[in-house]
Amino acid sequence: QVQLVESGGGLVQTGGSLRLSCAASGSIFSIRAMGWFRRAPGKQRELVAAVTTSGDTNYADSVKGRFTISRDNAKNTVYLQMNSLKPEDTAVYYCAALRRATSDWYYWGQGTQVNVSS
Hints:
about 120 residues, globular, four-stranded antiparallel beta sheet, seven-stranded mixed beta sheet, mainly beta
């Protein structure tokens, strides 16, 4: 089992920045990648950014150039640095871990709210 604990959400004005953190514990070896998803009101959940254990990253087109995902292996923590925030970035952000054995996003955090005011 893997436990994920997020922190760092909050309220920010348009153009501002926030950094989300996700601390993983448990069977870390079973994870192949970690990612951040978000769900805005009335919309489907979407993958925002992901990073593999080897450091490869990918981003949703809507956040490229504004968000950066990074990881601190010593702390088993993944970060999402969000810059130039827009009102459409308002959502609940979830940290997730891709299980190595089945290649599915199996483990999820509780979510953290990000609100961007116009």
